[in-house]
Amino acid sequence: MRTQTKPATIRPKITLVLGSGGVKSIAGLGALQVLEDHGLPPDAVVGCSAGALFGALVAVGHNAQQAMVLARTLWSRNITSQRRLRAWLELALPRLAGFDQRFALRDDRLIRQQLQAAFGDLQIQNLRLPLQVQASDAETGASVVLRHGPLAEALRASIALPFLFAPQCIGGRWLVDGSLSDPLPLGLAPADHVQVAVGFRVPCPRCASSASRLATRSTAALSNNLLDARTAAADTSRLVLMLPALPQRIGLFDTEAMPALIEIGRQAALAALPRLQALLGTGPRLAAMAG
What we know:
By secondary structure, the protein is of the alpha/beta class.
């Protein structure tokens, strides 16, 4: 008499969503390390701004540890060190100097070189894991999701913070930083995936003691309101959301904070692991493995 074997349970797939936040986005790699340690690597990746940059390392095929090492070379203060001297002329005499939507305070040649060195001519549609890169239309502010084409160009578009870097032209459209339209793009994961999302709120300066701090206060309010609206509209039944609170203000390029941020991501993922296991239906199996 033939005994019937119980079919193996196939767990739902996981999409790792890494939001904007500059260097803070590297916390997502700490969360990834926890997923890998528990046998739950992502099946797809969604990224915005610096989160797209770090997420691309995962989609290419690097594990968490490898991605952490490479992230330190890709995201550094050096990429903003090359000033455009002509920028001041464009600000002072906009008509004479030809000020337009391509204005930037910084030269982007170094970041282009680093993206090329890391990703070469890779195409988004040919990566080991499916990747979606969030950008924004510079003219309309509309969300633009890049799923095909050169990876380096898509990443350059997604980190094009206005005034700092010039927009990136892709398909005849000028694109800027993805955070302007969706700082944590939760709506891009397939409906049957469980989303593991890591994002951050923008700290709001208490004192507007300078023009830059006053501008930051305004942009922080806009970004945080947009983040709140996006998370409120998300399907929480298939979402593990991590918005870790930081002990102090960390700038976009405070790379010395990377180890602490990675640990913050690890701890947030460990705290969220029971919920993820419940959504995936894998809790008992993982508990047995851990024992």
